[in-house]
What does this fold into?
Amino acid sequence: MKVNLNTFKNEVYEKLSKEELNELFYWSLFDPSFSEEMSKKFKISTSKRKSFVLSKLRVSATIKAECDKGRKETNLFYEQFTYGELLTNYILAIAIEKELENRKIKGYKHFDIEKQEFPDLIFRKNKKSTSSIYIEIKGIIGTSNLKDRIEKEIKPNLKKGRRKYNNFLLLLLFPCKNKEAERVGQLIQGYYIYEKIIGNNSKNKRRVLAKCVSKDGAEDYCLNKLVDRILNNDNDIGYFL
Amino acid sequence: MTSDTFYSKMNNMNRSEINKKIITYLAQKLGSSLEGKKKIMKLFFILEHIDLDNKELLLEPFVGNKFSIYHYGVYSESVMKEIYKLVDTGLFTDGFPLVLKKDIAKENVDLEVRIKDKLDKIITKYGNWTGYKLELATLKILGLDLDSKKKYVGLDMKDIIQAVGSK
It folds into this structure.
């Protein structure tokens, strides 16, 4: 079963509190294979993740009906929807859209989100690609191979030139335990240096934003703050003007 | 030997014990090229699902560990559990690189010949590759890239191989 963005928005997003949405977003950034990049003492409980995520997603009648079919259906839905980036992309897309409404910035619509192709989020004001905003989200746990990953996974896609990626944001998101968020947050602030790899220059807005997302939604490391950073003119980003 | 016969034999053995031996053997042979958990994981996948002689994908895993695809490519929960167990027992010191305890480094690992032979081939061919290079290579062997892999996240490797094989 595929849950589309509208179903998710109406049946899940609108029903959860700010705190619940933040924690759902935090868990959405984790993946079983993260174990490869972290030592055992930092291991994440996949059962805790599953229990929380499913309890929140089941507020949707559509999702609940699917899960009620049985364990096999529940597991298949859970694996594909919550580990396949859709959950992260949906939450962030809706959060941006709602904040644009709050700020009375009109005209931007996200599209192609269900395709799960590069880049993760596309906001378009009109049919002219020059006014489109592209966001690629990388939920990561470690920084080993980060430069290689940007070189090999992001740069070639930007070079393909199917679209003019003038407004491109690479979002590096680090899910963090509450007490570590501040320390990690300081360490990753300097990752704007990777803007060189994605071809940032004075004629475009190709930027890198690295942020921690903490489980408890501490002020500086929550979903709302992240959206704020994307929409504000911080570091001269100012995509949605 | 058919895979059915092999699996029935496996019932009498402890797969966890075999996994432990495979990981130890890889660590002994790779030495300072061992890197970390990622490299063990990707080499283990090659052992399970790639026929190096005929350059084919194996629908049934060679030893019996289930693999899926996640964010960092091919991944098996049972293999990771075994690595963690080895860390717990002090065989490895965790981190990057994983370091095998000195007195284990030269110990003879008693593995089935067919497994040992295949591991030797894997080490010869891929032993010097980095974990990240193997992450990309194993996806490529499956005919997937970073975008197309998203459609198969969380699925059983058998289903993935059947799906990519019929594309």
Notes: The first helix of chain B runs from residue 3 to 10. Residues 54 and 118 of chain B are 13 Å apart (CA to CA).
